[in-house]
Write a structure and sequence with these properties.
Chain lengths: 460, 130
Amino acid sequence: MNKVLERQIKKVFGSVDNVPKDFLPLIELISTTYDHSEEDRLLVERSFDLNSKEMSELNEKLKVETASLETRTKEAEDTKHAVLNLLEDIEEEKKKVDQLVILRTKELDDEKARLLASINSLSFGFIIAGIDHTILLNNRSAVELFGFKENEHITFQAMSAKFGEKFDIAAEAERCVKSGKVCNFKEILFEKKVLRGIISPIIQKQGTELVIGYVLLLEDVTEARALERSRDEFFSIASHELRTPLTAIRGNADMILDMYADKLVDKDMKEMLVDINTSSVRLIDIVNDFLEVSRLEQGRFELKKECFDIREVVDKVVRDLKSMTEQNGVALLYIPPGTPQPPVCADKNRVEQVLVNLVGNSAKFTKAGSITIHTEIIGRFLKLQVIDTGIGISEQNQNLLFRKFQQAGESTLARDVTQGTGLGLYICLLLISGMGGTIGVEKSELGKGSTFAFSLPLFE
Amino acid sequence: MGKIFIVEDDQYVSRMYERIFRLGGHDVVFATDGESALKVLMNANPLPGVILLDLVLPKKSGLEVLTEVRSDTKYDSIPIAILTNSVHPEEAEKYLALGADKYVIKMDSQAKDVMALAEELMSKGRSTSK
């Protein structure tokens, strides 16, 4: 029986047993109903319980979700801030870069302006052209030189037309571009002017070398040439004017000494005449040296390119000077090499002149011993040495020897003027370099002697 | 032996040559400019044995005198020595090609050498008469 019903029956009847029998089926029914309602209640309760658990679970889930959402929102917010900051930074950087660009552009403009001003201030014409001869830049001097209007842009065609047939600028520029080497033009005749020109290739050196154009420099040397000519004329005339009276002085002194020797009984008088004669010969040498230097310096001397055996020249010089050195007790020797040497390419007379000068110098400063000439082949050159056992030259003076008006050991004012003009070795230097060789003191030691040497290109 | 004809505008130089040639026993004729040199030659009888010709001369230069003399076959046999103080020794070949027989720098030659040269030219005559 249902417990609740039982308790209530006990309250009414004192004990279940006291319930009248007639009520029993009813009580039975009530008890069952009770039970059922109890079950229903339990079911309902359980159902409630279940719902509230789900609810709380859902609630928990919701909480977690919410929390996660919040985190994500915050993260998104942070990211947004970060991105914004970054954008700001970029903006800042961009501004800086912009400023730098402005600054650099200005600097470049300044640089360009300075460069253009420099180019424009040049007295010679300056033209930069591309490989297709398009003129990219030219200065004012170039415009003036060609007689174009101010601010007129020079075109290659116009320039080429101005030069005409006398100077094929296109061909020359192409030759320069092709070779990649600087081409020099000493004399370009242009209208009534004389121009000196240089075409220099512009070479880009990134990776392989590439010629991307050329620079053309044009200098108006008309006046310089005229000045040079008048200087040369002055020198020629002055020399000629000096030579004529010198001829008479020398000739007469010579003749007296030669033909009237028996009448020169007074010793002093004879000495005076000898002095006049010696001095006039010296003066003649000086005039000759001055003239030679002037002509060599101006490049107005044509040096021949002859092919000859150096031995011919050395033998001749030894023959000519042997008696002179031997008079002073100095031997003049040439030890020819065992096998014949290949011929040199030079101006034979000029080589002889240089050798005579070197041997003559050695003879002046060698009082005993020997002067030896030695020749050998070094690469594509023949080297000739003049080795003496003379007084030698100190190291500091060796460098001065080949300068104008220099003699070892003396300043220009303190030179021993009886020894020469001080131009001899300078002339040798001009001659040998003109022939494509070199000349110098090879070695020298005070009291022991000197070795002078020069080289000449071999004939190829 | 014929006379030595000196064409020289400097009186001291010509006097010097005159002296040595006379001492050497030679007859000397003079002209001091190019024009008179040609006149002297035109009137000369007999013709001189040798002409010593300066280059820088008044009125007509030595070059002009040389050219005119060599253009006249009458003077073909007279040797001509250019006797100059020119500062262009490389021009020697030009004068030799124009018919001069010698080219001498006065300043570098002794008077007696010039006389020896004149005597040699006179005795040998022109090596290649053109």
